[in-house]
Design goal:
The complex is a heterodimer. Chain A is an alpha+beta fold. Helices cover 47% and strands 21% of the residues of chain A. Chain A has three helices and four strands, in the order ααββββα. By secondary structure, chain B is mainly alpha-helical. The chains are: A alpha+beta, B mainly alpha.
Chain lengths: 144, 123
């Protein structure tokens, strides 16, 4: 990390947060879009996807890792929430008994996730705006 | 606008380097004049070293600022080509380059002001 990058580390941290929340919003959109997908290429219905975050580390001068932002560690399938089963013998993906397994996507929950992700994204945007405003105010100090 | 920053950056860097060169020439001239005066030589040489260190630090900083601006110059092309996945990173880098350039420009203005002030001084 060079001198200037260090000076702007707050801005870069906020932008990494925006990127991470962006992935979360994308994932929610994917979950909502697939709320009725009963057949995925691997077999079985679509499973809700979850995003896990991890700190973004950078090796500092003293050899220690320091947190410089956030990153998406992994996007995993939700295996804990059970898949609901409905009786629909006419469905193409129905089993021998006529039951269809639906995705474990709860649209209401996804909407709540979408709201928290959007608010988190906006918080990062505000942090970045404040950083820029701060830098520009400091610049005005030199100009006078 | 981004292209603007980049092209301004390189021409401004040339300006600043020219100003720095003029500054070091002027300081050498002053140093030579001071060296002629007996007794003041020791003080002058230490001052000149300090001046060169300052010039070096300044041009190092400017080079770093220029590297940042140049890096950003290629970003719009990469964005259009689709090889940049994260537009937040692009926005942050563009803003960082813009602010770095503005700061460098202000430092350069201050330096030139100081140089002009020195030149106006009656000996």
């Amino acid at each position: 990390m060079t001198g200037f990058d260090k000076l702007f580390s707050g801005m870069r941290a906020a932008s990494s947060g925006m990127a991470a929340e962006h992935v979360r919003i994308d994932t929610v959109a994917k979950n909502i879009a697939n709320a009725n997908t009963t057949n995925v290429p691997g077999g079985g219905p679509y499973r809700r996807q979850l995003v896990h975050f991890a700190p973004l580390l950078s090796r500092a001068m003293n050899g220690k890792d320091e947190v410089v932002g956030v990153r998406v560690a992994k996007v995993v399938d939700d295996m804990a929430t059970p898949l609901p089963r409905i009786f629909d013998p006419a469905h193409a993906d129905a089993d021998a008994q006529g039951y269809v397994r639906l995705p474990n996507v709860n649209t209401v929950m996804e909407m709540a996730d979408l709201i928290t992700a959007t608010r988190a994204y906006e918080a990062n945007v505000t942090a970045q705006e404040q950083f820029i405003a701060m830098a520009e105010r400091a610049l005005r100090l030199i100009q006078t | 606008m981004i292209q603007g920053i980049g092209s301004q950056g390189s021409s401004a860097l040339a300006n600043i380097e020219a100003a720095l060169k003029a500054h070091s020439v002027a300081s050498k001239r002053i140093e030579a004049q001071l060296a002629n005066t007996a007794g003041a030589a020791a003080g002058a040489s230490t001052q000149a070293t300090a001046g060169n260190d300052f010039t070096k630090a300044l041009s190092d900083g400017l080079r770093e600022a220029n590297t940042g601006v140049n890096k950003v110059e290629s970003l719009p092309n990469e964005l259009v080509k689709g090889s940049v996945a994260d537009f937040h990173e692009v926005a942050a880098q563009v803003k960082q380059a813009e602010l770095t350039f503005k700061f460098a420009l202000e430092i350069r203005n201050k330096l030139i002001d100081a140089y002009r002030e020195t030149m106006r001084m009656s000996v």
